[in-house]
Amino acid sequence: MIAGGPEENPGGARSRLPKLKIPAKIWKKRKPHNNNEGDELDEVQEEQLEEVSRRLIEREEELFSHDCLCEEEEDQLHRDFEALQLKLWMAINDTFTPVSSTGQLEVLRSAMASIQQQEVQDQRWRDCHEERVPRWRPQKCLSIHNVLLQNMVERRMAEAAEADSGGTDQLSSPMKRQVCRVGRCVKEDLLMVVRRVKDCYPPHMDIMNLYAALYHQEFSARLARLAPPGLNDDDCGYLLLWVNHYYPHEILKHQELDGQIKAACLGSLLQQDDLKQLEEQYLAHKEEKVKLWLNTALKKEQENWLTGRTPELIDSYYFSPLAVDIIQMMTSSLSEINCAIRDQKKTQRFTVHLEHFLCSYVKCVEDFVKGNHSNICSVIKAQLVCEQQLRDYIAAETGNLSEEQKCRCLQTLSALRDCGHRCLTCSLHAELKKVCWSQLWTPQWLDGSLPVVNLLLDSLSQELVNLTDLKPACRESLLCELYQEVALRYGKRMMKTRMKSKEQQIAGAQQLIEDAKKINSFFLEEGCSKASWLCEMLCKLAEVLRLQDPASIQLELVTLARNFSDLSNAHVSALLSLKIGLSAANARSIRRSVEENRHCDVTTHSPPFFSKLKVKWINNKMNQMGLKA
User: How far apart are CA 149 and CA 122, in angstroms?
Assistant: First the structure.
């Protein structure tokens, strides 16, 4: 509500007011009283309205201090007060003149000082209990001022709404153009108030929030008239953008207005029921559009595959625009939705369609690789690029996807990546199977006469030539899997081997370290730098094998368990079973120590490795050997 002036106290009693204390500098400017003083306003047009107001108050006090009033002087004084009011209202009416000069702002400042004087004088007469008061009291200048502001705001908003220009021609509907013009008027006028007009008013009037309330009230009324039932979807979305974003964030929280306006007290521009109805209409429309767009994009991509089309090459690797298009569409849609609606949780109505899209996408790729298509390899290479781009987007998304949704989406993308890797690494896995892993830990391998690792790396090098047109980051991901498979083969053969002597353990440890370094160098040269931790892990296994002192073995296994959290008790038992001469008591002690200390001061989080190394057989073996704790 707009604050008015003090309440009027009716009364016909004449009152003799105490004299006001007028500053000395004002007294010096006073003109002698004469019969022509009624023309004072015409003679002092260049003077401050504040000074004129003071002089009229002095004349009023002097006139009403006598027992007998001069009717002619009373009439003249009444006319002078009316003339002053006219000048005050003209000053207020010129607040938003196109170019408010410094002189005009000084007039407004003086006018407000005059209004404060008249309010004080109204209160002085109201507090008197004598028989008569001036017929022009109370003047209620402040109340009239507020009504004038309200009328001025209504007029300015109406003029803005009906303007033919204003840079809104690019907007597609009359409703959008009107909302934009009116909203821009609100912003420009409030900025004018905070930049220039505010300083013309005393702080206690809180003129910034008075203007904000008036503009909010008028803007709200206009939007309510512009949002009838049946508003088309496009206009509905534009209206919501103004109500929920542009107005509260770009106007009320403009850097010059933020903190100046009590935005929380203003509330929403639309009634809650109307706003809820518009938001539901908008959400349903956008949801249908997003769903349709995703389905259409996938269908178009699938048609390209099935017609034998080869994806385009960009920077010498295969590429598909599908992921970029999906990301851009989702980003722009969610950005608009977040601005148009208040409850950000409702965005999950849209992200669930991204989940459904990913599931359909994986199904299409899996069905495609089952067919006999000449473009399978090139298509899969392009889809692996899409998988990586979508994974990066989803992993970085913080505001629109719940953690559960994000987890499901990433799992679905993992299925897509695994499908692509299986398709591209068929020949590579075949080469790995050809390797005589059974030759590891044989005397020929231990003395270096059987270079198992050299044969393996030579065959892999020949097969990897077919992956040169795969995007480097995707190629590295695939190579990491191959590297891990090779390391798993080494680990599995090691844990199944029964060492016959300490010398054999030491020799095997040295050979394992040499093989690990060769394998790591090979994959580094091929562009796989993210899996070097596998070399470190194999070297730690070799160190466990090399050590003979129970205390040293215990320390090394505790370190291994802290670095690789998926190292289970069964894996520890399998490693201990390799040690010749280790007593059952020492084995039990080491296992207990590892279990007690594995979670202390853990700072590293390595990728899973031992969880993929199945050693269930070791439990039975440990029972047979009496090594169970």
Answer: 21
SS3 call for 132 = strand
Across 29-38, 50-59, 225-234, 530-539, least confident range = 29-38
Q: Please give the Cα distance from 313 to 432 (Å, whole number).
A: 30
Say if residue 104 is exposed, middle or buried (CB neighbours under 10 Å; 0-12, 13-18, 19+). middle
**pLDDT for res 619:** 55
User: Computed from CA positions of residues 67, 72, 75, 77, in that sequence, does the dihedral angle turn out positive or negative?
Assistant: negative
Q: How confident is the model at residue 78 (pLDDT cuts 50, 70, 90)?
A: confident
d(CA 54, CA 44): 13
The distance in angstroms from the start CA to the end CA of the chain is 80
Q: How far is C-alpha 252 from the chain's CA centre?
A: 19
Strand-pairing partners, residue 318, are 313
pTM of the model: 0.76
Domain 439-488+498-625 in CATH 1.10.357: yes
Handedness of CA 328, 334, 338, 344 (dihedral sign): negative
d(CA 525, CA 476): 11
Q: What is the pLDDT of residues 556-583, one digit of tens each?
A: 999 999 888 888 888 998 888 888 888 8
200: Cβ contacts below 8 Å, ≥ 6 apart:
105, 108, 109, 112
Measured from the Cβ of residue 444, the count of other Cβ atoms closer than 10 Å reads 11
| Distance from C-alpha of 508 to C-alpha of 328, rounded to nearest angstrom | 54
Q: What is the DSSP string of 516-577?
A: HHHHHHHHHHTT--TTTHHHHHHHHHHHHHH--SHHHHHHHHHHHHHH-TT--HHHHHHHHT
Query: Distance of CA 400 to CAs 280, 348, 359, 385, 612, Å?
Result: 18, 7, 19, 23, 34
Residues 192 and 94 sit within 8 Å (Cβ to Cβ): no
What CA–CA distances, in Å, run from 63 to 35, 446, 474, 486? 13, 124, 96, 110
Domain spans of the chain?
A: 24-146, 168-188+199-266, 275-424, 439-488+498-625
Top pLDDT among 411 and 33 is at: 411
- The CA distance from 170 to 240, in Å, is 19
91: helix, strand or coil: helix
Cis, peptide link before residue 472, omega less than 30° from 0: no
- Please give the CATH architecture assigned to the domain spanning 275-424: Orthogonal Bundle (1.10)
Q: For residue 139, what pLDDT is reported?
A: 84
570-629: pLDDT as tens digits: 899 888 888 888 888 999 999 999 988 887 655 556 788 888 888 765 555 555 555 444
Over 50: is that where the pLDDT of 8 sits? Answer: no
Q: Rounded to an integer, what distance in angstroms lies between the CA atom of residue 295 and that of residue 286? A: 14
465: which DSSP letter? G
Q: What is d(CA 522, CA 524) in angstroms, rounded to the nearest whole number?
A: 5
Q: Do domains 275-424 and 439-488+498-625 have the same CATH topology?
A: yes
